[in-house]
Design goal:
By secondary structure, the chain is α/β, with parallel strands linked by helices. A seven-stranded mixed beta sheet has the order 2-1-8-5-4-12-25, covered by helices on one side. Helix 1 packs parallel to helix 3. The two termini are 42 Å apart. Bound molecules: flavin-adenine dinucleotide. Flavin-adenine dinucleotide (FAD) binds next to helix 1, strand 5, helix 2, strand 13 and helix 7.
């Protein structure tokens, strides 16, 4: 999905088959990548931002959306999702193109000094610079590790729901004990032909209300709840026909099903970033502290993904890094341009870029 212009304007990716020409591509739409859009925008630079997740927010949205954060300057307390919502609001004037649900897989420096950037979904960019704000890496689903599982991934073994209707009228097994597993289980109840839940322990990480509802439905016989670990797949010819679940007493229960939705959570993986020829230090990108440039001129790294003496993986450190990296990008793309510091309070050009009226 490509969102161009205002973050809520959707343009079909087909229209963007040709490389998108831009001053900067930001890899990662976590809090730090989002703030980089703002800092680039203040300097009059346009950017495109890409994330492998289907939504912006990085760790804040994916790992702790409801938790309060207390160390964002001038916000005594701010929910993690609220912080992302506020950042999305703050960057609206700069009309960054959003490309969500796509991992940036390749970055190649051209002889012109520009970068050819590609995503797994086939989107291509011709970029003057890159800011990598990839955090801990791109989030990948934890996979079901049993023999033959790989063969069924993407057809009968799924790690995310693309269309809920695909599960209707089918024999569905949901695996996992977090909110995603329970939310989908409750959503499918009454719509799937048969429904089972497998979770390895009695305790759940999901909301207590969802767990209570699941137990009630199981008590009414509307779904089956089995405590145990999936240890094998049952096959019928080429088709997945069920799973074998090992219980605490080592006995194995066979559960027939035609679709398995495994919600074991997501884990970050540095992934393709490690292959872009950039100097690494303990699985992070080594940068300078003047402009947070990596070992390759024109490629900057900010937020949790970078390493330098004294680095602290905090959102506020990432915000500072974003400001200095934006100046670095400006200098890289327009080396002839004189740089000077302007204040948003007093700069007419910055106010114009922000779309706010001049004060009286
Ligand atoms: C439970 C918890 C509580 C926390 N509390 C606080 C707190 O109170 N205060 C604080 O300052 N910090 C806190 N943190 C840390 C804070 O969340 C991180 O420092 C912050 O999220 C880093 O932001 P980021 O934008 O650098 O990276 P992230 O938030 O990790 O975002 C990086 C994004 O990059 C994407 N990405 C990576 N590689 C690719 C690729 N190749 N292609 C496309 N996309 C890619 C990922 O999908 C991800 O969305 C907390 C962290 C956790 C887990």
């Amino acid at each position: 999905m490509r969102q161009a212009g205002a973050p809520n304007t959707i343009v079909s990716e087909a229209a963007a088959n040709a490389a998108i020409h831009t001053e900067c591509v930001i890899v990662g739409a976590g809090p730090v990548g989002l703030f980089a859009v703002f800092e680039l925008g203040l300097l009059g630079l346009k950017c495109e931002i890409v994330d492998s997740l289907a939504h912006a927010g990085g760790q804040c949205t994916e790992l702790y959306p409801d938790k309060p954060i207390y160390d964002i300057p001038a916000l005594p307390v701010c929910g993690a999702q609220e912080l992302i919502d506020r950042l999305m609001q703050q960057i609206k004037p700069f009309h960054a193109g959003f490309h969500l649900g796509q991992e940036v897989t390749s970055v190649v420096r051209q002889s012109s000094g520009r970068f050819e950037v590609q995503t797994a979904a086939g989107t291509r960019f011709d970029a003057g610079s890159l800011i990598i704000a990839g955090g801990l890496g791109s989030f990948q689903p934890r996979r079901l590790l049993v023999p033959e599982a790989e063969r069924y991934e993407g057809n009968q073994l799924l790690y995310r729901v693309r269309r809920a209707e695909d599960f209707h009228g089918r024999d569905v097994l949901v695996a996992g004990g977090g909110d995603s597993a329970l939310d989908w289980l409750l959503e499918f109840c009454g719509k799937a032909r048969s429904l089972a839940l497998v979770h390895r322990r009695e305790e759940f990480r999901a909301q207590p209300a969802s767990v209570a509802r699941m137990k009630q439905l199981a008590g009414e016989g509307r779904l089956r709840h089995v405590v145990g670990t999936i240890q094998s797949l049952a096959l019928d010819g080429d088709r997945l026909a069920g799973v074998g679940v090992q219980q605490a007493d080592k006995s194995v229960v066979d559960l027939p099903c035609e679709l398995v939705l495994a919600c074991f959570g997501l884990h970050p993986k540095l992934g393709p970033i490690a292959n872009w020829g950039l100097a690494l230090e303990k699985k992070a990108l080594r940068v300078d502290t003047e402009k947070f440039q990596t070992s390759m001129p024109g490629i900057f790294a900010i937020g949790d993904i970078n390493a330098y003496p004294g680095k602290k993986k905090l959102i506020l450190s990432g915000f500072h890094e974003a400001a200095l990296a934006a100046f670095g990008v400006q200098h890289h793309v327009y080396p002839e341009k004189r740089q000077f510091l302007q204040y948003t309070t007093t700069s007419p050009i910055m106010r114009e870029r922000l779309g706010v009226a001049a004060p009286d």
